[in-house]
Sequence to fold (174 residues):
Amino acid sequence: MKKRNSPIPIVYGVALSALLVASAGAQTNSVPAGTTAAPTAEQARSVGKPQFVAAQRPDQWLASNFKGTEVIGADGKKIGAVTDILFDRSGKIDAYVVSVGGFLGMGAKEVALTPGSFDVVPGANGGTDRLKLSVGQDELKQAQNFAPYTPPRPATTGAAPGGMRPPGGAPTGR
Fold:
């Protein structure tokens, strides 16, 4: 993955740390001497002095690079790509949103799967890592569409926009 020099908000660091723990739990996680490990979710939730992460480790991903990660099926063929990451306020990753099917973005649908649904597999010839599912594209096409949260619209008060009186209404006395 490419290395970026831009600062990462702590929440992204925590979310990506949780991603690695959930996705690659079997891998060892050694931190070279002299480097600062990413804060745990518990540390990030505590109120107090901020904890900074100096650099990305080789076993960590940036969300900006993770978006677009190829998703392959049980047969090793590409079935989609990560379009978004769903995480809660504590930084815990709840799901990866994957675009499935379609051609050039037309006719594709998005499904969300928990991180435990994926295995991380190395890319071919030293390429970027990929996510592997135990199902194929047909099963994902049959899955329920992912629906992002839409906040409720505020109730109308009967007043016209901009604080003006409704058309045809009687003027107020001054």
